[in-house]
Amino acid sequence: MTVPDVVIPPEFAAHTVVAFGEPGKAWLQELPGIVAEMAERWSLRIGPPFDLSYGYVAEALRADGTEAVLKIGGPDREAPREILALGLYDGDGVCRLLEADEDRCAMLLERLRPGETLVALAQRDDEAATRVGAAVARALWRPAPPNAGLQPIASWFHDAFGRHRAYYGGAGPFPPQLFERAERLAGDLLDSADSQVLLHGDFHHYNVLSAERSPWLAIDPKDMVGDPGYELAVFLGNPHEADLGITRRLLDRRLAVFAEELGYDRDRLRDWGIAHAVLSACWSAEDGGGTWRQTIRVAETLVGL
I need a labelling partner for 119 at 20 to 30 A (CA). Which of 127, 133, 220, 266 fits? Predict the structure, then answer.
């Protein structure tokens, strides 16, 4: 088989090095060989990459002519978590996992067509997009399998808030009252959760795509477990500001739609939204990015709802 020509966009390479340092450089050097190995093992023709962030994702064509997606996890080695989650969902509400190699952090995934993200629908009709989000979330939630090795969402909050306080000696660039409120809300919400379900873990507009075997399916799940309100909170603060402005009216409508469609308490969901927005801001500030300003604005808007 011909060795595939692996296209590594310069912006992606630079981003990987900034994010991961020397391990990122080493991974970039190994990447063409990993792609070639997977192409040979799974009899694939590799096409161009998609828009890349923290892993390599490219078009692929199987020997029988069916389309697929080759995904090679990045230096963070979170791919085994995605492989675990995809296996648990088994195509129900998410794209199918066709092949996997945990050691190489490699996955062959079902290609979703037409593959339009939920962002486009939100730009045309945000209420309709929110109802789609509710339907997909409902399909994803199920009792967490025992002894599956799932990660509790509590670990994300405890770790991120603790690191933020240690680094800045307090709230840092965030409004102190908002940071303290979010930290307190997170503890109360985690302690009072009356259900623990398998969660997607990163459920937002960019991770919900239009498909053929189901109108909409999710991609990129994590192996998380916790209160379903966390899942909806992630959705509340998306998409990015450049794609859709997050306004008070929009957030109020989303809260109402989720409460109606899923029977989830509106005020509790609002509180989850505040807690998660500040959690996201902690992650962004830790990475040196400026997107935390948007999530802080989302949290401040939710406080007034």
Answer: 266
**pLDDT > 60? residue 2:** no
What is the structure's pLDDT at 3?
52
Q: Where are the domains of the chain?
A: 10-110, 118-303
Q: What digits encode the pLDDT tens for the residues 41-62?
A: 999 999 999 988 889 999 999 9
Q: What is the CATH number of domain 118-303?
A: 3.90.1200.10
**Is 202 an active-site residue?**
yes
Mean pLDDT of 30-36: 95
Does 2.20.140.10 match the CATH number of domain 10-110? Answer: no
Structure tokens at 87: 């296996």
Candidate list 76, 159, 191, 202, residue with the active-site label: 202
The type of residue at 186 is A
Q: What are 88-108's pLDDT values in tens digits?
A: 999 999 999 999 999 999 999
| Pairing of the two strands 151-152 and 224-226 | parallel
Mean pLDDT computed over 209-231: 95
Q: Is the peptide bond before 48 cis (omega within 30 degrees of 0)?
A: no
Under 8 Å between Cβ of 255 and 305: yes
Average pLDDT over residues 175-203: 95
> Are 93 and 140 contacting, i.e. CB atoms less than 8 angstroms apart?
yes
| Segments of 63-133 assigned E as strands | 67-72, 97-101, 106-110
In whole angstroms, give the CA distance from residue 289 to residue 270. 25
Contact status, residue 46 vs residue 59, Cβ threshold 8 Å: yes
Contact 259, 217 (CB under 8 A): no
Cβ pair 84, 68 in contact under 8 A? no
Q: Do domains 10-110 and 118-303 have the same CATH topology?
A: no
